[in-house]
User: What shape does this take?
Amino acid sequence: MARLLIMRIAAIIPMLVAISVLAFGLHSLAPGDPARLLVEASGLSPAPPEAVAAKRAELKLDQPIATRYVTWLAGAAQGDLGRSYRTYEPVSRMYLERLPATLALAAAATLISATVAIPLGIFAAFRHGTSIDRAAQFIAVFGAAAPGFWVALMLTYLFGARLGWLPVFGSVTPRGIILPALVVALPFISILTRLTRASALDVLSSDFINVARMKGLRESAIALRHALPNVLVQITPLLSLELAGLLSGAAVVEYVFAWPGIGRLAVDSALLRDTPVVVGFAVATGIAFALANLAADIIIALIDPRQRAV
Amino acid sequence: MLARASTYSGRLRRHSLLGSSAVLAALVLAMIALIGPVVWSTDPLANNPLERLQNPSLSHPAGTDLYGRDILARLLTGARWTLLGACLVSLTVNLVGLAVAMLATTGRTVDITIGRLLEALLAVPGLVIALALTSILGPSFRNLLFALSLSGWPWYARLYRGVILTELSREYIEGARALGASRSRLLFRHVLPNIVGPVLVLATANLGFIMLNLAALSFLGLGIQPPTPEWGAMVSESRTYLQSHPWQVIAPGAAIMLAVLVVNLTGDALRDRLDPRFRV
Assistant: This one.
């Protein structure tokens, strides 16, 4: 187990290097003089030339690009992702402050999609070809086609304005999280239902299920004790890859619901062309992806004894 | 047993019926984008302050927006931007992805290098890279298409690499190799014609995804700029009037959803027809 863990952690290092190259590349693409923009953001406008020159030396802007990258990477490794062009706040602090709201949203969305999609997918596979199966496929097809920002607006209209049941904008409360989490969950319900159904169909055709049937086990026991663990093993790696996508998908939803999370920060900064903050989002989602990968590997090792030997 | 067989064939028939209607709807959608603005020739940009925010009527079948512009005309013109834009992005990412995948399968070192590179590039979601790129390059439709293409291709490259490798492990390839066919001949004369089916299926199945991302970034204001109509931008423009005039928001959003639905169902139909291996 320890060896497996070390191997998996080592495997994410090239990923982190690539994320850093990408982030630095995006930084370098941005127009404008970073030194001047930062000095102006710190409150000195128009920027005095000597302050700009000092900033330029601090950021090593007159050095070759390789040196600049190493400097940037050394800072990033210590959690320094630069400062905002608007507020001069450190980018990493801005993200850390808003991370809890996004994590809450992601957790709620994951909970919703798992509780809806996994039972639905397994049930659809058990009742293959019936109306329940068709209903599951219908949900999957619609969930994949609905634009999140539009569904968000429709739900705010229906539940917020018409029925007045739920708070609509930026309310970080158990009631306020329902609508945004539902919208974030929608595409995942679709993907997860499809995956679970396909995986369960696959599992149901294997020999051990036949043996379980011949032993005279009830269908519910077959579903819970025999089918479910094997389905979970198959869908966990795919699910973990979708989780990082959840962060980027949540950006648009957070924007519509004025949810005070990292996605909304990224969108607001993108619209105002605050490059350091926007690039910080790429770093944040990249790290989240790497960690989700790692978590998936560990979970699989825990629930599937066959994987532990690897 | 007989009853079982008959329901199975019934299911198959229903499936192909759904498939055919999806393909038909996709053709209608393409026709709407192509000749729609010609048939319904009202100017999508003509302001008319006297007829603002109207619900559907005979003279304006889809109503008018906050500047009194005809929504149907805007939807039809918007179809061109959304659909054409998504098709352009799809074409680019598929061709680049296919080319990189073919390059990857030519040697062991190059495969490992490209594989690592793809794995790393895929760590950051495409939408996030596209968001950053459109922000850095400045919001315009051209930059949006560029950003979506640049951030989208690694996913296709990884997918097609797998498709090509599966094909390369088949027996007929073994035979061609035994006859002394070169690597490039194998790839271009044998593998490529045989993977057209799966490539077409994957490209169609993911076109809807591209359409959604395109609409989302346009909605955020990072794509086409007003007054040009685009479906995502239309939702954004009218959201201030959501409470008083919900129809303004419903119409363009429903257009996006319907179009994506049609494209996705067409993808499913193509998959059932062309490539039973990918059936999920």
Chain A touches chain B through 51 residues (CB under 8 Å). The first helix of chain A runs from residue 2 to 11. Chain A has a mean pLDDT of 81. The two ends of chain A are 9 Å apart (CA to CA).
